[in-house]
TrEMBL record:
GO molecular function term, any single one: GMP synthase (glutamine-hydrolyzing) activity
This protein's UniProt keywords: ATP-binding, Glutamine amidotransferase, GMP biosynthesis, Ligase, Nucleotide-binding, Purine biosynthesis
Pfam families per the UniProt record, alphabetical: GATase (PF00117), GMP_synt_C (PF00958), NAD_synthase (PF02540)
Listed SUPFAM superfamilies: Adenine nucleotide alpha hydrolases-like (SSF52402), Class I glutamine amidotransferase-like (SSF52317), GMP synthetase C-terminal dimerisation domain (SSF54810)
InterPro entries with a match to the protein in the record: Class_I_gatase-like (IPR029062), GATASE (IPR017926), GMP_synth_C (IPR001674), GMP_synth_GATase (IPR004739), GMP_synthase (IPR022955), GMPS_ATP_PPase_dom (IPR025777), NAD/GMP_synthase (IPR022310), Rossmann-like_a/b/a_fold (IPR014729)
Organism domain of life: Bacteria
Active site: C77, H165, E167
Oligomer and partners: Homodimer.
Catalytic activity: XMP + L-glutamine + ATP + H2O = GMP + L-glutamate + AMP + diphosphate + 2 H(+)
Protein's recorded name: GMP synthase [glutamine-hydrolyzing]
């Protein structure tokens, strides 16, 4: 089914809630012509909320055609008002805006939307205008003190709408209302499952790749790992994965991919040990953005060289590599407004044997999935839990967690301190509560300490545990004191070069999550 995005931040949430109801959903912009929406043959259409008043100049408008096509439709907030207006109802600025938690009264005994739900329930409102008269043919099934028409439905035409936001958790029975629309009013069976996603994707990948080969860059993170596991399921050893070990990964991460991931999925893996090359390129660099540029540049070169070797070997065997696998997720697709299907890897003349511009077709088996769905696909495919649940880790790795120049010794110190912090967070069962917990080495700072009988002059490390939804904003996580104490004691006992552990208690903004 389609979610028509009227520009509110809620469209992705609606699409996810629909999938939780086991109905596949996709988001389309409200600027898409109605004819194009209908051509896709949707089982139903949901109109999302939006920032505008239906009377504001330039407000997205809807004609009645969409509702006359016989496709079930559900309006939410702005979408509810747009629907009311298009079908001849009245929308007015009542002067009593509602924002936040509001009591809703169900006023119809035989409402399908609210069937079996409490007659008074708390819902989340966010609107200035209100529907004051429902269009002909609709029954008004709920109201609030400020909104006489808070929900309406016409089961015969399979149309319904609500003024509140059923997709947010603050609407106590929102998911049930949404499911009543999907399953009862629109009559869509809840058949979309992760198992189906895997079967469909495997078929699609086979059809796309045919007899050719594909190559995939693995980072050790969840997206590239699950994408690789899916493609491996589809084309077996015609997929080669390349893991560039830039020496900036955390303790045990390369081994985790080399051993556990390969054992679980059977992918053909090439690990390129390029640690020395990255260290040489990073020598003398302490500016964060320069570090990122150097690491990014070297990464592409090393990956290209490795891919060139894979391409050359396969060409010798008469099986050309024509595809590149990428772990692009649905939110990236929505936010970038679509996206094309080819990637050009630019080859540098001084490195390796790729043609100047080698065009690969892109295989993006996660393009329709949200992160939580990717994790479920991964678990179903047997990808190890440590990878499926791995917290976000930046591409430049520990390179941007050493404030100062990156050297082999400093990396070793940080790796040991980081491993201890991760071990203790896991032991305390806090992995899922913490979004991520960078450990940062202040390599150019020294402070006086006393360890054993002697005076020391060592480095501080910073613990940066944060809680976040999407990394755009974050708060520092209030870790239990005893967990902090254990981490601090262990790091200062076990990592001789560190004599101080400090806690970063800054939210984002103003601080970023990483220190560099
Ligand atoms: P900041 O530090 O900007 O980080 O609050 C937000 C999120 O992005 C990650 N991050 C990066 N990821 N390359 C990446 O792939 C980078 O250069 C980079 N810098 C920050 C960070 O770990 C956090 O999840």
């Amino acid at each position: 089914m389609l979610v028509v995005d009227f520009g509110a931040q809620y469209a992705q949430l609606i699409a996810r809630r629909v999938r939780e109801a086991r109905v596949y959903s996709e988001i389309v912009p409200h600027t898409m012509p109605v004819g194009e929406m209908l051509e896709r043959g949707p089982a139903a259409i949901i109109l999302s909320g939006g920032p505008s008043s239906v009377y504001a100049p330039g407000a997205p408008d809807l004609g009645p055609e969409l509702f006359e096509a016989g496709v079930p439709a559900f309006g939410i907030c702005y979408g509810f008002q747009a629907m009311a207006r298009a079908l001849g109802g009245t929308v007015e600025r009542t002067g009593s805006a509602e924002f936040g938690g509001t009591d809703l009264d169900v006023v119809s005994g035989d409402s399908t939307l609210f069937h079996g739900l409490p007659v008074r329930q708390s819902v989340w409102m966010s609107h200035g205008d209100a529907v004051t008269q429902a269009p002909a043919g609709f029954e008004v099934v709920a109201r609030t003190t400020g909104t006489p028409v808070a929900a309406f439905e016409d089961p015969e035409r399979r149309l319904a709408g609500v003024q509140f936001h059923p997709e947010v958790l603050h609407s106590a029975h929102g998911q049930a209302v949404l499911e009543h629309f999907l399953h009862e009013i629109a009559g869509i069976a809840p058949t979309w499952t992760i198992g189906n996603v895997i079967t469909d994707q495997v078929e699609a990948i086979r059809a796309q790749v045919g007899d050719a080969r594909a190559v995939c860059g693995l980072s050790g993170g969840v997206d590239s790992s699950v994408a690789a596991a899916l493609v491996q399921r589809a084309i077996g050893d015609r997929l080669t994965c390349v893991l560039v070990d830039h020496g900036l990964l955390r303790e045990g991460e390369v081994e985790q991919v080399e051993q556990d991931f390969v054992a679980a999925t059977g992918v053909d893996l090439v690990v390129v040990d390029a640690a020395d090359r990255f260290l040489a390129a990073l020598a003398g660099v302490s500016d964060p953005e320069t570090k990122r540029k150097v690491i990014g540049r070297e990464f592409i070169r090393v990956f290209e060289e490795a891919a060139a070797r894979v391409v050359a070997d396969s060409a010798e065997q008469g099986e050309p590599v024509e595809f590149l696998v990428q772990g692009t997720l649905y939110p990236d697709v929505v936010e970038s407004g679509g996206g094309s299907g080819t990637a050009t890897i630019k080859s540098h003349h001084n490195v390796g044997g790729l043609p100047d511009d080698l065009e690969f077709g892109l295989v993006e088996p996660l393009r329709t999935l949200f992160k939580d769905e990717v994790r479920r696909v991964g678990l179903e495919l047997g990808v190890p839990e440590e990878i499926v649940w791995r917290q976000p880790f930046p591409g430049p790795g520990l390179g941007i967690r050493i404030v100062g120049e990156v050297t082999a010794d400093r990396l070793e110190i940080l790796r040991r301190a980081d491993a201890i912090a991760r071990e203790e967070l896991t032991a305390a069962g806090l992995d899922r509560e913490v979004w991520q917990c960078p450990v940062v080495l202040l390599a150019d700072v020294r402070s006086v300490g006393v360890q054993g009988d002697g005076r020391t002059y060592g480095h501080p490390v910073v613990l940066r545990p944060v809680s976040s939804e999407d990394a755009m904003t974050a708060d520092w996580t209030r870790l239990p004191y005893d967990v902090l104490a254990t981490i601090s004691t262990r790091i200062t006992n076990e990592v001789r070069e560190v004599n101080r552990v400090v806690l970063d208690v800054t939210s984002k903004p103003p601080g970023t999550i990483e220190w560099e």
